[in-house]
Amino acid sequence: MTPLRCTALAALALLPAATVAVAQASSSPAAPQAAAQAPQLTTDTTIVKPGETLTLTGRGFPHDAHLALLAGAPHANAQRIGGAQTGRRGSFVATIRIRARSSAGAFVARACFDACRVHASARFRIVAH
User: Which residues contact 101 (CB under 8 A, 6 or more apart)?
Assistant: First the structure.
């Protein structure tokens, strides 16, 4: 085998390893950013009475996106309670009125985007008058 052919074969053998190393190096710095950008949902209070309002604040969502707001008992199907539009920074504030005839108990509010592939949740409790 000629020296030129040996060099070409060695270069071909090393190409996939170099490509993988470059791909891993370029994806590593993005991982901490993705973790820091995870969507978050908070409530202004964790206890609310029927007829009162609950303010939901979300951040870390895609910018200029329409979100579905859902609520339900933990580990149960949630119902749509409204919607929200994020701004340029991926955040929103939405005020939800708790129905006057709502049952007391623990609930989870959820903000969903892209069929709930991107979501965040917050717990709250409805207490009797």
Answer: 50
Residue 12 structure tokens: 């071909």
Pair 124, 109: CB distance under 8 Å = yes
Between these two residues, 37 and 124, which has the higher pLDDT value?
A: 124
- The pLDDT tens digits of the residues spanning 37-87 come to 799 999 999 999 999 999 999 999 999 999 999 999 999 999 999 999 999
* CA distances to 2, 6, 40, 53, 74 from 96, in Å: 77, 71, 17, 5, 18
Picking from 116, 100, 5, the residue whose alpha carbon sits closest to that of residue 61 is: 116
Amino acid letter, residue 115? A
88-123 in b/e burial notation, b at 16+ Cβ within 10 A?
Answer: eebbbebebebeeebeeeebbbbbbbeeeebbbbbe
